[in-house]
Amino acid sequence: MFARSTAARTLAQRAFSSSARAERKVAVLGAGGGIGQPMSLLLKTDPLVTSLSLYDIRGAPGVAADISHVNTKASCKGYEQADIGSALKGAEVVVIPAGVPRKPGMTRDDLFNTNASIVRDLAKACAEHCPKAMICIISNPVNSTVPIFAEVFKKAGVFDPKRLFGVTTLDVVRSSTFLSQIQGTDPKDTRVTVMYVGDILRGGHSGVTIVPLLSQTEVAKGVTGQAYKDLVKRIQFGGDEVVQAKAGTGSATLSMGYAGAIFVNSLIRGMNGEKNVVEPTFVKSPLFESEGVEYFSSNVELGANGVEKIHPVGQLSAEEQELLNACLPDLKKNIAKGVEFAKAS
Ligand code: NAD
Ligand code: LMR
């Protein structure tokens, strides 16, 4: 709908941006849930998605029947538990928001016990039915579920690190919103802000492992002192705001559905041959490997085979270096926990 042109393109534009057409089957695992439903709806409206396969242990056929009435080109079919093979057959992109969400007082790591085995089992199914698909993991704790998925693929002998992504786009979406609120920018300015902010998140997806690099964006210049500290904290703990406001009924679903649809659109544009498609995402990364951190989120250029190029973190301010120092040990533990779980399974 909108052509990619300048670096100032908005996230909203990105969500519906199209490039060369190719047949692209996208499977959503957990499609009946709070994220799965709105994200599947947005994917149905994405002109780059030609076929949608909606899978859940409950409710997916109903969601698919509903979404299939939306008058866009993509076909849409729902699958129940016994049909996971059919759901995944031919999928080129698999998006996974399956799993339980947080309640107030919980950390993302508190979800590990339930979600680790869900992601492990879905990884086994993907290894069997669509080993070459691009996999986008939303299920928390992302810092651990991505390594779990990778280990299952390694065991099955089908792991390609270029094709596995932890979706951290919601952090970017939030950052742009929070920063533009502070700076009082109008929607036009906010669009510019979004792109800059799109370049500033590093690390993982959970509390202090989210490292906003505000010094790298012009729009954040002048946000200093307590305002800076408050903004960093709000970006790192934005998920908690939603968890508390939902008061026990779940965590971010609608904004995550939006963010997930943006990420998939970018991924497919890269797969379709568009150049310079860059998204921050949590991938197997060399950036901090020497410090024992095997996965990291930084700007990643997306291409025909997934990860095309992992960008470095860039210049850090003294405060940001401190944030990074706080991030790495936690991230390392989260990753190790996922790897150990998968190896022991
Ligand atoms: P939800 O409970 O509303 O939906 C989860 C869905 O997963 C349900 O429909 C459930 O039936 C399904 N499910 C459970 N086990 C399954 C399995 N084995 N196979 C297929 N489907 C299965 O939860 P939600 O609000 O949609 O959140 C889902 C996950 O996404 C949570 O872990 C949450 O923490 C995470 N999340 C991540 C981000 C992020 O930025 N990465 C943002 C928000 C939420
Ligand atoms: C978020 O950032 O909103 C998600 O990771 C869900 C959560 O548990 O906060």
Largest sheet at a glance?
A: 6 strands, parallel
Task: Give the overall average pLDDT.
Answer: 89
The general outline is globular
Summarize the amount of helix as a percent range.
40-55%
- Terminus-to-terminus distance: 45 Å
Low-confidence stretches: 1-15, 190-198
Looking at this protein, list some descriptive labels.
binds nicotinamide-adenine-dinucleotide; single chain; 44% helix; 345 residues; 3-stranded antiparallel β-sheet; alpha/beta; 6-stranded parallel β-sheet; binds (2S)-2-hydroxybutanedioic acid; disordered N terminus; globular; 12 helices; 11 strands
3D structure, described in words:
A hairpin with a 2-residue loop joins strand 10 and strand 11. 44% of the residues lie in helices and 16% in strands. The chain starts with 10 loop residues before the first helix and ends with a helix. It has 12 helices and 11 strands. It has a 6-stranded parallel beta sheet with strand order 3-2-1-4-5-6, sandwiched between helices. With 345 residues, the protein is of the alpha/beta class. Bound molecules: nicotinamide-adenine-dinucleotide (NAD) and (2S)-2-hydroxybutanedioic acid. The site of nicotinamide-adenine-dinucleotide has 33 residues, from helix 5.
Summarize the structure.
By secondary structure, the chain is α/β, with parallel strands linked by helices. Helix content is 44%, strand content 16%.
